[in-house]
Specification:
By secondary structure, this protein is mainly beta. The protein is built from 1 helix and 10 strands, in the order ββββββββαββ.
């Protein structure tokens, strides 16, 4: 059985912030963008950030956190929060893989999204990143 694509997040990145110290490196990349799917369509609100910590052993923990405002598949206005976590050694693979966690105020989306049954793929492009989220 093939994983089902449920959502695409189109991310436009902004200038990154970096700190490189004796305990490791921190990278923060603010971003904006849109989410398009059969279940939710909306715009990413201000405050979205991809935070990457690279420890002294070279392990990278990426955690993108963002909230979008839009409409669910019934046409009801709602918000959707996504936290997308991934762990990598050295350079990130292409595409990189993540585990998304969802929170929403939409009753119909909550029933579907508030469970651990999804994975993400990040595809880097000229303007940012496209995150494809699949049900597994």
């Amino acid at each position: 059985m093939e994983d089902k694509l449920i959502m695409e997040v189109y991310v436009q990145t902004e200038d990154k912030l970096e700190l490189d110290g004796p305990a490791g490196k921190i990278i923060m990349i603010p971003f904006s963008g849109t989410i398009k799917s059969a279940i939710f369509n909306g715009e990413i609100l201000a405050g979205g950030v991809d935070r990457q910590i690279i420890d002294v052993n070279g392990l990278k923990h990426m955690s993108a956190r963002y909230m979008a405002e839009g409409v669910d598949h019934t046409g009801k206005a709602c918000k959707l929060f996504i936290e997308n976590d991934g762990y990598f050694t050295e350079d990130s693979p292409r595409p990189f893989r993540t585990i998304p966690t969802f929170y929403t105020d939409s009753d119909v989306l909550a029933e579907y999204l508030h469970r651990n049954a999804f994975r993400g793929e990040g595809h880097v492009n000229e303007t940012g990143v496209t995150i494809k989220i699949f049900e597994v």
